[in-house]
Amino acid sequence: MTESAKTHVILLSCGSFNPITKGHIHMFEKAREFLHQSGRYIVIGGIISPVHDSYGKPGLVSSRHRLTMCQLAVQSSDWIRVDPWECYQDTWQTTCSVLEHHRDLMKRVTGCILSNINSSSSPVIGQLSQPQTQTTPIYHNHDNMNHKPTAIKLWGKISENLGKICCVRPHIDHFTFVDENANLGTAIRYEEIVKLRILLLCGSDLLESFSIPGLWKDSDMEVIVGDFGIVVVPRDGADTERIMNHSPVLRKYKDNIIVVKDAGSHPMSVVSSTKSRLALQHGDGHVVDYLYQPVIDYILQSQLYIKASG
């Protein structure tokens, strides 16, 4: 399959990121690698969307801090960006509404019709073949953008044009996002894209939460799994097959769920924000294994998580 014929994917991860860890970034990297090796997908970008302050989780620090820490964690990445739209809304947003926002936004900015995961012309994403050996990697780390393959250049073009129509909110002047009320003008079309999808990227803990009665609206689950699709990176030896069979909605849309193989055996699969906060509170030197150094420096400078807060 030629690169232009493959489905282009944007991975979107929602969560507290309280704080963002090496495990979060590892999740993006493992998912991208697995999708590329399937031979059917090209991941052109990743989006981190921290939750709104009104989510009400105990110990959740201000979005001002969480956005800054996320930006520090991805500052060397050429394909993952932080989006503050969710934090800047008047109140907490559901995961479903965040996915729909980014779907509509990408449609308006790129002029592309984003594929429904269930369209007849689309491959069944949950039934990927075994990873195929590639002699030439899809991505190269060149400093010159002109030397980068199509997928990286494409994400750069999208990000550049998002920046041209965005507005900057006070107190986080290095963050930009697209205002839904902005005048977008003529939609930009990218001839490299044949099909574009936004997939929710998550760990197996979020997948398991779908089985908790009353936690998710059935209508939201139908949209998230049925219309968009999920890429799951298992954590700490989780049995994703058992989790999916335990939920009627997950069973119904099992073919729309991609489980990244062998990710649960990686050391980063056990890293969590909770472990990171505890390490900070106890002065545990292992915190350097969980968090990037710029994030640690910011936490210490801002005196975050030092006192136990739940």
Automatic annotation (TrEMBL):
GO terms for molecular function: ATP binding; nicotinamide-nucleotide adenylyltransferase activity; nicotinate-nucleotide adenylyltransferase activity. The keyword 4Fe-4S does not apply. It is found in: Cell projection, Axon; Cytoplasmic vesicle membrane; Golgi apparatus membrane. It is an enzyme of class 2 (transferase). One of its GO terms (biological process) is NAD+ biosynthetic process. Signal peptide: none annotated. Its EC number is 2.7.7.1, 2.7.7.18. This is Nicotinamide/nicotinic acid mononucleotide adenylyltransferase 2. It comes from Mugilogobius chulae.
